[in-house]
């Protein structure tokens, strides 16, 4: 199974791009969504987060206290790295099991911090989604009902998009939906061709 990473900075439009791929019958794994599920259901993860951040890491009904944790990691990259180090090994195992159940020619993992977590080698190809910084800021302010200052602070915890783009196999410029869709379709056809060629080589 060919595994493709879909990454990009906050507000770049990864979810929009993932939705376009999904409409082409590509299986999509959204790491952030699955991480939230695991943090709410895994007893071992809950125990480690409480040990690290205190009992307030979870609410009285045993749900992750996202606001509390967000406030802690907001301007503390070390704390953010600690959370990622607790969660992502579990995500890796969950993703591997998920991949085995998929039937699409290739699968995509949507993950904002592939490069930041040094996970690039786990993917056959990586697609980076990019957009002008002011566009990204406006998107996040509208989506999260937050302030420009808060968005910029969150951006500082991620790599610069230009750095990601240089390392990616493909880059999607997501400023116009029609253009974005065309770029997705082009990359999809390219990947299908590469997969076909790889199968032919393996059969030789």
Task: Profile the largest sheet.
Answer: 5 strands, parallel
Q: What global shape is seen?
A: globular
CATH architectural label of the largest domain:
3-Layer(aba) Sandwich
Structural class: alpha/beta
- Number of individual domains: 2
- Estimated radius of gyration: 18 Å
> H/E element string?
EHEHHHHEEHHHEH
Relevant CATH superfamily of the largest domain: P-loop containing nucleotide triphosphate hydrolases
Task: Going across the biggest sheet, name each strand in turn.
Answer: 2-3-1-4-5
| Mean pLDDT rating | 93
* Helical amount: 55-70%
Query: Low-confidence spans: pLDDT under 50, at least 5 residues?
Result: none
Query: What CATH first level of the largest domain would be assigned?
Result: Alpha Beta
Cα distance, first to last residue? 19 Å
Descriptive report:
The protein starts with a strand and ends with a helix. With 204 residues, it is an alpha/beta fold. The protein is 57% helix and 13% strand. It has helices at residues 14-22, 31-41, 43-53, 66-73, 77-99, 133-144, 148-155, 161-167, 177-203; strands at residues 2-8, 27-30, 106-110, 125-130, 170-173. It is globular and about 55 Å long. The longest helix is centred in the last third of the chain and has 27 residues, at 177-203. Helix 2 packs across helix 5. The protein is built from 9 helices and 5 strands. The chain has a 5-stranded parallel beta sheet, with helices on both faces. The chain folds into 2 domains: 1-26 and 106-196, Rossmann fold, CATH 3.40.50; 35-103, Rossmann fold (3-Layer(aba) Sandwich). The model has no long low-confidence stretch (mean pLDDT 93).
């Amino acid at each position: 199974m060919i595994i493709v990473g879909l990454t990009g900075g906050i507000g770049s439009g990864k979810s929009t791009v993932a939705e376009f791929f999904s409409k082409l019958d590509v299986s999509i794994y959204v790491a952030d969504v699955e991480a939230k599920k695991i943090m709410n259901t895994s007893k071992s993860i809950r125990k480690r987060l409480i040990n690290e951040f205190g009992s307030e890491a979870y609410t009285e009904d045993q749900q992750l206290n996202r606001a509390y944790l967000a406030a802690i990691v907001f301007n503390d990259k070390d704390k953010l790295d600690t959370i990622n180090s607790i969660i992502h090994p579990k995500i890796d195992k969950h993703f591997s099991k998920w991949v085995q159940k998929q039937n699409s020619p290739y699968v995509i993992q949507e993950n904002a911090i592939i490069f930041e977590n040094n996970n690039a080698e786990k993917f056959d190809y990586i697609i980076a989604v990019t957009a002008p910084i002011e566009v990204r800021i406006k998107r996040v302010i509208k989506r999260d009902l937050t302030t420009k200052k808060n968005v910029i602070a969150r951006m500082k915890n991620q790599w610069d998009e230009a750095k990601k783009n240089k390392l990616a196999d493909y880059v999607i410029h997501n400023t116009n939906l029609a253009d974005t869709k065309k770029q997705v379709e082009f990359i999809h056809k390219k990947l299908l061709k590469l997969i076909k060629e790889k199968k032919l080589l393996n059969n030789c």
